[in-house]
Amino acid sequence: MSTPLPFAIKLAVLLLIVSEHSIAYMVPTYLAYMMEGFITKDHNPDNLDSEISYHAATLEGLHRLMSFFGCFIWGIGRQQSLILVLIGITVSSIGFGLAWNFEVAVFWRCVAGICGGTVPITKAMVRDISDDSNIAILYSYFGTGHGFAAVLGPLLGGVLAHPYRIWPTIFDTQFFHDFPYFLPQLAHALVTLIALVIIIIYVPNKKATKIDKTPTTMLFKNFDYMIIITIFGFVALVQFGFRMLLSLWIKLDQDKKGLGWESETNVGYVNSLAGIILIFFPLYFTPYLTKVFGVKKTCMLVITAMIPISIAMPLYYFSSGILLWFLLAISIGLFISLTTVFTSVISIAVSNSVSTELVGRAMGICQGYVALFRSIANAGVGVLFGLIVDWNFSYPFNVDFIFYLCALVLGISVILMKYYITPRIEKRQKDDDGLSEKNQPLLTKK
């Protein structure tokens, strides 16, 4: 029987995840269209698609790179860190909506990246307030929050971008023509402010009871921990590379094997429909799968299930109308849901692989490491997409190749998970030094 969790804690976790992930789903909805607006006047129409890819890669690649650095600068306590992070996200979101050119947009996305430390802080907080009986339940709220964000973010981005198109009597002013993405960014800022209020009210400022003298270097001698974050990084490559790929592929002209959608609105609707799956799937399947199969097998199952989705996606080019909408919504929803379950369960593995004294630093280093992979994914997929479009490669080295590459990385991750992760990650460690006798140093592991 699981230990009951206070409603306020569940609400705090939910709002934190919604505030961070809704922007992550909102921006890709109109990213390609936003880049087109910034660069159309300065580039030849013949190579506009590839330039959009390069600029999108630069913007989101730098954003994720700043997230890598941001994960290491929040060490002043749970509540204070969360307050500063949420204030930074709020300001940067409004600033991004007011960007008048590409360079200003890059600046504000970099600020958002530095402030994007909500998840590791929240995960460390979860370890503090949970036990083995309810940690999977609490992590399922990460998935539920992710689901609400996956519905809310694209919906805000698709409907509120260029608001004068839908509500001309209210928004057909020069301001919204000059800043067509201000309204969705403002809406996200308001969501973040709500999360900030919840944190101030419900999350206590826990004071340190003793000075922790456990050296951080113990983490790098922990074989399980190092393998886990490596696999986490590989899946993050696919997770965020897939997201960047979709945002570019959906807009790409049909004669170049893209879907050729001309408006952010339809993109937002489809992604919001996909997000409905994400609301319910992780909530039920995260605790159920971990209870039935355990941490290791659950990770292997969900990674394996992502492979056929990645392979099948390029075939949707041959469909249209309601069938295309249905296939996209189901596939995107399942893919994101599976990655969300994986992220929750692999985070339990990270937490279980180290001692209590090291869990905060373990989460921070893990999140920074994964953020680096996310930066590589966004930049790499954007550049590769642009090169493929520029050079007009034929099948299988057209844009379909990137989908197949994602499936290959997932396959490698399953193999690593099966043969290199030990059963120790199934339960949290009780030792004080973060390195029990069964968890031999990485360099001496046979």
From TrEMBL:
Signal peptide: none annotated. SUPFAM superfamilies: MFS general substrate transporter (SSF103473). It comes from the Eukaryota. Keywords: Membrane, Transmembrane, Transmembrane helix, Transport. The keyword tRNA-binding does not apply. GO terms for cellular component: membrane. The chain crosses the membrane at residues 12-32, 52-75, 82-100, 106-126, 138-161, 181-204, 225-246, 266-286, 298-317, 323-350, 371-389, 401-421. GO terms for molecular function: transmembrane transporter activity. It is found in: Membrane. It is a multi-pass membrane protein. PANTHER family: MAJOR FACILITATOR SUPERFAMILY (MFS) PROFILE DOMAIN-CONTAINING PROTEIN (PTHR23504:SF15), MAJOR FACILITATOR SUPERFAMILY DOMAIN-CONTAINING PROTEIN 10 (PTHR23504). This is Major facilitator superfamily (MFS) profile domain-containing protein. It comes from Stentor coeruleus.
